[in-house]
Amino acid sequence: MEPFTYLEHTADVKFLAHGRSLEETFENAALATFNAMIDSSTVRDEETWPIEIESESLESLLYEWLSELLYLFEVELAVFSKFEVTLAEGEEGWRLNGQIGGERVDPERHFFETEVKAVTLHQFEIRKEEGEEGGEEIWTAQVVLDV
Amino acid sequence: MLDKVDDYVFEVPIGHQKGMRVPGRIFISEKLLEQVEAGTIDQVANVATLPGIVKYSMAMPDAHLGYGFPIGGVAAFREDGGVISPGGVGFDINCGVRMLRTDLRAKEVVPMISNLVEDLFHDVPSGVGAKGRLRVSEHELDEAFTRGAAWAVEAGFGVEEDLEHCEENGQLEGANPDHVSLKAKKRGRPQLGTLGSGNHFLEIQRVDKIFDEDLAKRFGLFEGQITVMIHCGSRGAGHQICTDHLQVLSKAVRKYGIELPDKQLACAPLGTPEADNYFGAMAAAANYAWANRQIISAWTREVFERYFHDAKLDLVYDVAHNVAKIEEHTVDGVRERLYVHRKGATRAFGPGRPEIPTAYRDVGQPVIIPGSMGTPSYVLCGSEGAMRLTFGSACHGAGRIMSRTQAKKTYAGTEVKDVLTRRGIKVMATHPKMLAEEAPEVYKPSDEVVDVVHNLDIARKVARVVPLGVSKG
């Protein structure tokens, strides 16, 4: 299972993020979002930021999670390469608790290939694919980023 | 699949997509149509399903695949029964272009081009996450959201005449900072007066061809003249405003029972609180973008004055190409107030419209079409065809034909820079990697796109300008 794959899209960035759990799928979607801007291997895990999001559906939770990361990127002037989340479903909807690791942008070491402006809802979806007989289930999130 | 209605007019018939209320219309040549992806045509059809859409879901000749609306998409909605949708505006609200004309000639400026581009690159912050030179207070930020370029001029950036030469005078009415979230304000404050990155640029150009002497004279343009073009938008503030309201409008879709073929087309019926709040916030972002371009213009003037003491840089015009606005149009002989969405499309009002500055009113508004990096840009003049065919709209640029991923595989940024240098174009960017995805070859040739709007009398060709120096994010 590839953590994420980029698909062809003329003007924007489209990707599929995969995971054996929802948590892993959310983490890989975050990685795909940042990796579209900057080679993640150049980002050190030096500082952590806590994140807490509540949302009415799983889809809106993923949208808010990725949007929150772009917000933090801009106001903290930091790039991230490590994402850890736990998800829980409650009566009111879904809840995400997590922390992200990364470092402040250093123009000497961090070369951006593009700027992700935002997460779009175009063709946005989360789906579960049952594995082969007896195999594990795989979650896939499809996202189009505005760049 | 498409019906040819006329030369340069193709119809997407009702039935292409379930729920279409009107047909689609793509204004394009047969040659350019061959490069339009099937997905773009589907997006034109998707827009046609929105409630209250008037006449057609339209696409300009630079149409390409977007999210929600196609890029190059235009749609108008009735006040009564229509909707407003961020899918028809985009995240970079009021991304737009302005052109400044100088009284300098190429032969004076070419020897100084390296100094000018280096200073512009230094004085106008650009790049991913760039912070501005400005430190505005919360109150000043609210003023920028409410009053746009008018605030910027009052704060010392530019002159009164600049406002007359901006679409909407650089101030969209109805802006309401109360519907701008704290997050959007936090992103917006440090970024006022920054160019951004991606396809945004600040370019020094030379007028290399005049197509219409009379119109060129009216716009103050002549062959061999130096012009400056600024292409940027509302930065993180606009992105956050769209992100926030897209979620609210997604809920509104369920609340008001609207069926959508694409979630990015989330919308609310006009007159509902959700629609009003989005409009107020979107207008605030539009004003932020006008303030931004106004501030950048002032710094550009300072740079030119450093090398040419009495240089005069007058604003030709400033156009928005990602915005929704209330405009009056004649529909089947009846005057109507419509919410016109332009997503990667430029307003191109023809002669006589009161919205056009007095200096240009009897000929039509200047329509500024930026090229891609290293290729020509065009100045056109809005004409009758636009009022008849496209709710007063024209194309906004060349239109992408190669994806960014493909571009990066095909071109190395350093190579792109070398090619441009050999052609005499001085380029500065935060990193060469940024240049690869904006290589000139990834766009359609802009002359073909411009010829379509000229031939349909949407906007007439006035002048062509070529780049001498470019500063990019």
Could you characterize what this model shows?
The complex is a heterodimer of chains A (about 150) and B (about 475). Chain A is α+β, with helices and mostly antiparallel strands and about 150 residues long. Chain A is built from 2 helices and 8 strands, in the order E-E-H-E-H-E-E-E-E-E. Chain A has a single domain (about 5-145), classed as Archease, Possible Chaperone, Chain: A, domain 1 (3-Layer(bab) Sandwich), CATH 3.55.10.10. In chain A, the strands form 2 sheets. In chain A, strands 1, 2, 6, 7 and 8 form a 5-stranded antiparallel beta sheet that branches. In chain A, strands 3-5-4 form a 3-stranded antiparallel beta sheet. In chain A, a hairpin with an 8-residue loop joins strand 7 and strand 8 (about 140-145). In chain A, helix 1 packs parallel to helix 2 (about 60-75). The two termini of chain A are about 25 Å apart. Helices cover about 35% and strands about 25% of the residues of chain B. Chain B is built from 15 helices and 19 strands. In chain B, strands 7, 8, 9, 11, 15, 16, 18 and 19 form an 8-stranded mixed beta sheet that branches. In chain B, strands 1-2-3-4-5-13-12 form a 7-stranded mixed beta sheet, with helices on both faces. At the A-B interface, helix 2 and strand 6 of A face helix 7, helix 9, helix 12 and helix 14 of B.
